[in-house]
Automatic annotation (TrEMBL):
Family: Belongs to the eukaryotic GSH synthase family.
Comment on bound cofactor: Binds 1 Mg(2+) ion per subunit.
Assigned keywords, A-Z: ATP-binding, Glutathione biosynthesis, Ligase, Magnesium, Metal-binding, Nucleotide-binding
Entries under InterPro entries matching the protein: Glutathione_synthase (IPR005615), Glutathione_synthase_a-hlx (IPR014042), Glutathione_synthase_C_euk (IPR014709), Glutathione_synthase_N_euk (IPR014049), GSH-S_sub-bd_sf (IPR037013), GSH_synth_subst-bd (IPR004887), PreATP-grasp_dom_sf (IPR016185)
Protein name: Glutathione synthetase
GO molecular function: ATP binding; glutathione binding; glutathione synthase activity; magnesium ion binding
GO cellular component: cytosol
Sites where the protein binds substrate: 190, 449
Coiled coil: none
Amino acid sequence: MHIPFTLTPLPITRHRFQSLQSKAGVLGKLIHKASQDDAFLKQAMEPITEGDPFFKHLWESHLKLQTQDTERRLPLLIMRSDFMDDATVGPKLIEFNAIAAGMGPFGQRIHELHKYVYTQHPTTYHQFSALPHTDTDTDTKLELVQNKAIDSLAEGIAQTTLQIKNEFNDDGPPRFLMVVQPDEDNVYDQHLLEYALQERGIQTVRRSFRELHDTLSSGESGRLMLEGVGSIDTVYLRSGYSHCDFYLGDLDQKDQCCHSLLQTRIFMEKHRVAMNATIRQQMASSKRVQTLLSAMNAQELCNKFELTHEEARAVKELLGTNLPITGDTIHWLEKENVDNWVLKNQGEGGGHAIFGQDIIHKLQELSPDDYAAWSIMQRLRPTPRSVPTVLVRKGEPQLCPDLISEIGVFTVHADGVPATNLVDEHEHEHEDNNDNTHNAGGYAGYLIRSKPALAPEGGVHSGMGVLDSLVYASN
């Protein structure tokens, strides 16, 4: 079916967007540093292994790689940092997405669609635009916020793929392996990225973990080889963020759920390939780590993760309030207005956030061993758009009077170094010279997902969300 979308974009001030753009680069740097800090990962992961079987498996896989001293892969961090712009406290981080951080190509496509509506159907555009206008200024030129996510993500991946290829200087084209879910129906943004890589001379291959089992082997000097294909330079996981991605009963050993396919993932990390996401990256971008980072002050962030003072202050501005679950927290919440909070576990994707009185009911079900795997985040309440907005879902238009949005910013870092810095020349004309984090680098486009204010789940594929884009409002 057609993916749902808005007819007109979300207004944002230039200063606010550039601030998120630059600070997302700092977050990419931070998560890379956290992923390389063994003591910090141990502090984060060990307490949640009793309450979250999947992260227990990730932690055990990490320890196995550490023990064997075979982490040869080049960590390629393709991350989407998701924000909501609260009406009172401003933009705050909802979550990091370092594994299967998709839909960037759709972000570029909806920007292009909004540009088409604006240029070809200006009267309709202005009728449903949230920017103020009168009947006499419908031809006033607006500036949509450019989104080159397809080009930028592809360029970052291509550079890293060629880096690995050049290390070996062997025959054949550079190759990119996308690890996908079996029978996946959410594939179109994946294909858009693949096409962009193919245009850059890179051969793309799609396989599930099940298809990779017993088809991977080791070549010379740590080369990763795929049966029937040849050498692999980059591995990109669009699968692997839940147990179901690794479960296969006929291969699992007795009492060892997901053992075989997790071994396939570990095997890939033992080789010299660029890889997103590594097990380290997946752990470092977890809700648990987000909670720990929120509890640190700016000086602690500087000392622990080698951030500058400006970068640490930028991170603190974005992290918001995230609290661990303890007996005292539960007792306090029972007396609080729970509508001001969201309860989260470590799960990725839709369906893992709990609201309202369901928070209390869920907390009463947890044992103390489960507490560390859960956290509560202060609920963010963006200001709805000032005019009703047309949504198109399943090919049918509908009017939404209270649309709110989530802003995702993509970054790409290869071994901690920005692999792209896509800021077009026009943007440089408007840079805020007082923003010392602007050159943090790694920016690779954006994704806007909007939903009705009362809808609990904002996922485009699995919730009530719709694709959206941005237009500059006056500062």
